[in-house]
Amino acid sequence: MKKKTIFAVLLAMTLAAAPACLMSGCSGKTVYLADDNVTVITEAEYNQLHGQTSGAANTSNAAASTPAESTAAPAESSAAPAESSAAPAESSAAPAESSAAPAESSAAPAESSEKIVITFVKPEKWETAYAHVYEKDKDANLEETKKNGDFPGQEMTDNGDGTYSYEIPSDIPDPVVMFSDGKEGPNQWPRVSPLAVENGKVYEKG
C-alpha cells in the first residue's frame, strides 16, 4: 500500500512539472525520476546516465553469469585392486611309501639229509659185530653224553660178505666209534682210543 502511494505522488509531481517545462522552453528535455525526485534533463544527459546504469547492470550480470569454477576435485578411486588371497594350493599328497617289506624267507636251511654209513670187516673169531658210537672227547659212560646206547652199543647189519654196516644217528655231533663182538673181553677194537667216524669208510682190524 505504501509503494502505491509513493508512486502516485511521484506521478502527480511529474505531471505538474510538465506544463512548467513546456512554458519555460523545456523542449528536447526529459523528465527523470530518481530517488523520489523529479529532474528535468536533456536527452544527451539521459542517454549518458542511462548508459552508466546499464553498463553497471551488464557488468553485474556478466559477473553473475560467470560459470562457477568447479571445486569438486575428481574423486579418487578408493577401491584398491583387490589382492588375491587365494594362495596356490600345495599338494598334500605325499608320495606313498611302499609298506611291503621284502618277504623274509621262512624256510630254514634244510639240514643235511646225507646219511653217514660205516662198514666193518668182522674178524673170523667174532660171531657178530657191534658199533658203540658217542660224542668225541666225551666219556661214553656218562648219562649226558650223546650216544647210541651203553656198551656195546648196537649190532651192525650183516652184509653176507664178511662185512657189517651201520648208519650213524644224526643227533650225535662229531661222532667216534668202537667195535666189539658184543661182549666184555678181548674182542674189542680199538682197546683204548675210539676211531673217528668217516662216511663210507671201511674199517678193518689189523
Describe, in plain words, how this protein is organized in 3D.
- The protein has helices spanning 2-23, 43-65, and strands at 29-34, 37-42, 117-121, 130-135, 154-155, 157-158, 163-167, 175-180, 188-189, 195-196, 202-204.
- With 206 residues, it is α+β, with helices and mostly antiparallel strands.
- The protein has two domains: 2-63, no CATH class; 117-204, Immunoglobulins (Immunoglobulin-like, Sandwich), CATH 2.60.40.
- Strands 4, 5, 8, 9 and 10 form a five-stranded antiparallel beta sheet that branches. It has a four-stranded mixed beta sheet with strand order 6-7-3-11, with no helix packed on it.
- The longest helix is centred in the N-terminal third of the chain and has 23 residues, at 43-65.
- The protein starts with a helix and ends with a strand.
- The relative contact order is 0.11.
- Mean pLDDT is 71; it is low at 17-27, 60-75, 77-82, 84-89 and 107-111.
